[in-house]
UniProtKB/TrEMBL annotation:
Co-factor requirement: FAD
Binding site for FAD: V96, N104, G105, L106, V107, V246
Swiss-Prot/TrEMBL GO biological process terms: secondary metabolite biosynthetic process
Protein keywords: FAD, Flavoprotein, Signal
Pfam families the UniProt entry points to: GMC_oxred_C, GMC_oxred_N
Domain Glucose-methanol-choline oxidoreductase N-terminal: 295-309
Name this polypeptide is given: GMC oxidoreductase
Positions of the UniProt region annotated as Disordered: 614-646
Protein family (similarity comment): Belongs to the GMC oxidoreductase family.
Active site: H552 (proton donor), H595 (proton acceptor)
Species this protein is from: Podospora australis
Single GO MF annotation: oxidoreductase activity, acting on CH-OH group of donors
């Protein structure tokens, strides 16, 4: 049931088994899988609306060429970036059913096997490549269909044993590629970097055509909503509540368990929300679990305003402490990116820049008539994932990863100041060890170079050593009327110097790439400063002025031991709670060298199985009425209609 936004109070059940907070990628996967059992009820709260299928969302060739469709973006910004140029950056995140998968660039990559094995090494049994591969496969409906011409010139030969063909998310290849894709792959090959026929089979370092999240049959976007929600929205046990912003999760103390380090587990008994055009807070109780899927930025903020987070943050917010968990909102990681435009001047070249006037009309007509042609081609299909081995081989002075090693002063490297919690520092030390082994692995990338359809070679750091933070600035996320101003989002890009250093080497590598025989045929005319790759000072300044997000935030509710700054257990349960899970990108402990949506789909598939397992094998938890309310201001709503809160 899609509950009408303006009359939600007339439609809500008195209570739900599961309440999912956030109807983005992860939330919709879990809601779909849990409601396969007709005996459980699930309510999904989503702050955004259902998209109206505008071409800017559905047509691959239009995505990323204009801004975001305004209501579908949270309009978040970062704090001024002190390790860059002291400017803040826009930070687009999906505010729409389907979340980031409605805005994203369609790239579907997984990274290397070793990336996931590192998650397991960090204390998470079952979260290795082997543990996740069945879920990568379960989520996708992979089509290897591509014309024989492209198969050969672009080396597209997927390994079908690692792909699923009957999952919900369409994954495939466009029916059209621009000529620059061939030139780029050949240029990279000239440099001795391998060309991969399938980047998603466990070895991810090399140049490659990436599969896209598109439906092969009509060459349009495949997203979380169309894959996991639309086909099951008529299930009577699945309720979707759009344009409803969750403002808090409410807890009671469970009977003491004697479990260390928490005296008593906290039970999430209800979710508080604000409905469209209303100032009241309403509550809906849940019988089994609250499942947090609000994304890496907003899930930690919601935990904090609900009293779960670092002591200092809870104190600043003046919220009653439910659980002190230092890692909530820490360990933020993102792929920082610099876009470098190379302006191919070859007169006969056809690129997405040529889609104007009559050409554009013809291309549009072709796409609408038979789903072929340049509009099927996403902005990004052709990339090179560069390992440290290849970077060192191709450049005179490659970055020295030994500084990541075990003798390093972790606390100083974090640059979090004297108040950094010891568990965060300890967790960082463990991550650095895992990162060192990743960057030295020739199957793993340290840089991504994305050759897009308009002549940009964007350079992206793949294993950042910097760690940022997310913090709620007010105990009321809607203070002042909107959420964005109440979020302190500080990626702390390049707080570790090596991150910017890697980008500088990436730009030097670009210079080598455009000077290869095949790329020279495009007649690149790099604009200043990309034409001066020898000037390190200039490159560093430019990087610092131009770094922006690749939209891959993770780590803020990391799946790691509590003693290492983690927030959730390997079963994704928030430490110290009986029934609160996080299933979104925030649980990723270390960013893989990949675009992350395929991992998020897989994580959520696995999360759904974990939840099902727990409730099949264990007695359903005692309902909330037997529990003790945490204190004034948290009135308990045992049953009946949702109640307004002051
Ligand atoms: C512009 C952009 C481009 C990207 N490009 C790619 C790409 O090409 N390839 C790739 O692999 N990945 C890409 N990504 C990343 C990918 O889309 C995300 O990793 C993925 O969407 C994360 O899923 P999630 O479930 O963690 O969060 P989301 O998908 O962001 O879902 C969170 C949902 O929770 C909702 N929500 C948040 N707070 C509340 C609240 N308080 N109350 C109610 N609802 C709430 C949000 O509105 C949102 O719908 C891109 C992301 C963006 C934004």
């Amino acid at each position: 049931l899609n509950i009408p936004a303006d009359s939600i109070l007339d439609h809500l059940l008195p209570s739900y088994d599961y309440i999912v907070v956030g109807g983005g990628v992860s939330g919709l996967v879990v809601a779909n899988r849990l409601t396969e059992n007709p005996n459980v009820t699930v309510l999904v709260f989503e702050a955004g609306e259902l998209d109206s299928s505008p071409e800017a969302v559905t047509v691959p060739g239009l995505i990323g060429h204009g801004g975001f469709v305004p209501p579908y973006n949270w309009n978040l910004t970062t704090t001024p970036q002190e390790f860059l140029d002291n400017r803040s950056r826009d930070y687009g995140q999906g505010h729409v059913v389907g979340g980031g998968s409605i805005l994203n660039g369609l790239v579907m990559t997984r990274g290397a096997k070793a990336e996931y094995d590192a998650w397991e090494t960090l204390g998470n049994p079952g979260w290795s490549w082997r543990g996740l591969l069945p879920y990568f496969k379960k989520s996708e409906n992979f089509s290897a269909v591509v014309s024989p011409e492209y198969q050969n010139t672009l080396h597209i030969h997927p390994h079908m044993s690692v792909h699923g063909t009957d999952g919900p998310v369409g994954v495939g290849y466009p029916s059209f590629f621009y000529n620059q894709s061939t030139k780029f792959l050949r240029g990279i090959h000239e440099l001795g970097v391998p060309v991969l026929s399938d980047p998603n089979a466990g070895v991810a370092a090399g140049a490659t055509i990436v599969p896209s999240s598109i439906l092969a049959w009509n060459q349009s976007r495949a997203d979380g909503r169309r894959s996991y929600l639309d086909p099951v929205l008529d299930r009577p046990n699945l309720h979707l509540a759009t344009q409803q912003t969750v403002t808090r999760i409410l807890f009671v103390n469970e009977t003491s368990t004697g479990q260390s380090p928490f005296e008593a587990l906290r039970r999430a008994y209800a979710v508080e929300f604000v409905t469209l055009g209303d100032l009241h807070r309403w509550q809906v109780p849940c019988g089994k679990e609250v499942i947090l899927a609000a994304g890496s930025v907003l899930s930690p903020a919601l935990l904090q305003v609900s009293g779960v987070g670092p002591a200092s943050v809870l104190e600043d917010l003046q919220v009653p402490v439910v659980l002190e968990i230092p890692g909530v909102g820490q360990n933020f990681q993102d792929h920082g990116m610099v876009q470098a435009f190379y302006n191919y001047t070859e007169p006969g070249l056809f690129s997405a820049n040529n889609l104007t006037g009559d050409t554009l009309l013809n291309v549009q007509e072709q796409y609408l008539a038979n789903h072929t042609g340049p509009w099927t081609q996403p902005l990004i299909s052709t990339v090179a994932f560069i390992s440290l081995f290849n970077l060192s081989r191709l450049l005179d002075h490659a970055p020295n990863p030994s500084v990541i090693g075990s003798n390093f002063d972790h606390k100083a490297a974090l640059r979090l100041g004297p108040d950094a919690h010891p568990t965060i520092v300890e967790g960082y030390a463990h991550q650095l060890r895992a990162l060192l082994s990743l960057v030295l692995n020739p199957a793993v990338a340290v840089l991504e170079i994305m050759a897009d359809s308009i002549g940009t070679l964007s350079v992206v750091m793949q294993h950042p050593l910097s760690r940022g933070t997310v913090r709620a600035l007010s105990s009321d996320l809607l203070s002042g009327g909107s959420v964005a101003p109440n979020i302190h989002l500080d990626p702390r890009y390049c707080s570790h110097d090596l991150d910017c250093e890697f980008l500088r080497y990436g730009l030097k590598l670009n210079d080598r790439i455009i000077k290869t025989k095949h790329m020279k045929e495009l007649k690149p005319a790099p604009a200043y400063p990309w034409n001066d790759a020898c000037n390190d000072t200039l490159l560093t300044e430019t990087i610092k002025a131009r770094i922006q997000t690749e939209f891959h935030p993770v780590g803020t509710t990391a799946m790691m031991p509590l003693a290492h700054g983690g927030v959730v257990s390997p079963r994704l349960v928030v430490y110290g709670t009986a029934n609160l899970r996080v299933v979104d990108a925030g649980i990723i402990p270390i960013l893989p060298a990949a675009h992350i949506q395929s991992a998020v789909f897989a994580i959520a598939e696995k999360a759904a199985d974990l939840i099902k397992e727990d409730y099949d094998t264990f007695q359903p938890p005692t309902p909330a009425p037997n529990s003790i309310p945490l204190g004034p201001g948290d009135p308990h709503t045992p049953s009946g209609s949702p109640e307004p809160q002051g």
